[in-house]
Amino acid sequence: MKGIIAGMAAQIQELNTEIEKWKEKYKREKQICEAVKKDLSKALQRNQYLQEEKEDLLNISERYSRVVRVLGNNTVKEAIQKDIQREMEIEENRRKEQSSGKSILELLKQEKRKSMMENQYQRPGKKKYRGMEI
Prior knowledge:
- By secondary structure, the chain is mainly alpha-helical.
- The chain contains 3 helices and 2 strands; from the N terminus they run αααββ.
- It has helices at 2-71, 73-100, 104-122, and strands spanning 128-129, 132-133.
- A hairpin with a 2-residue loop joins strand 1 (128-129) and strand 2.
- Helix 1 (2-71) crosses helix 2.
């Protein structure tokens, strides 16, 4: 009888270790499942953002097509090229101002001189008499 009880106790011990292994495996799988749920949630949010962006781009495309249809392809291309050139000039001027290393006072003096020169070239034949142009 003692042998049977000892055998059953050994089986119970084996079953308990097997249960602990399954508990650990369940915890790991549950953690993996939670991580996948988080990834899925992030993917769904990203998908929603991309859907909205797609709608915005489709609206822009439709508007562009309408503008081309109304104004003509050549007019739109010329306007785009002018805008690109204007943006490049603005960016170049920003880089020049930043890289010039001049102080603000020096830049102001330089601009004042430019405006004075432009004013002189605009009215070369007129004379001033006591604050009045003749």
